[in-house]
Design brief:
By secondary structure, the chain is an all-alpha fold. 57% of the residues lie in helices and 0% in strands. It has 4 helices and no strands. Helix 1 (3-19) packs across helix 4 (71-81). The longest helix has 17 residues, at 3-19.
Length: 84
């Protein structure tokens, strides 16, 4: 994993932890749907995506929601859209 991927992963897990404090980031399975792992409803999930936009400056349009289902998917999506 590149440094950029690791940094993005850490940022995303920090966002999730802030919005769902009961989540243990170590227990998140990177290739499983994140919402079901941490039991987020649709409003909480939108808050996660909005927080990613605020923190990292990447807007995730609704048409791309299918690409950001897993932690791995979110990281891959953001790597393509963030400068090195």
């Amino acid at each position: 994993m590149s440094q950029q991927q690791e940094r993005i992963r850490t940022e995303v897990l920090a966002i999730v932890k802030r919005l769902a404090p009961e989540v243990d980031p170590v227990r998140v399975i990177p290739d499983k749907p994140l919402r079901t792992q941490i039991d987020l409803d649709s409003m909480d999930w939108l808050n996660v995506l909005a927080s990613i936009h605020e923190k990292l400056g990447v807007n995730i349009p609704e048409t791309d929601y299918g690409k950001v289902v897993t932690l791995d998917g979110i990281v891959a999506y953001l790597v393509e859209r963030l400068p090195e």
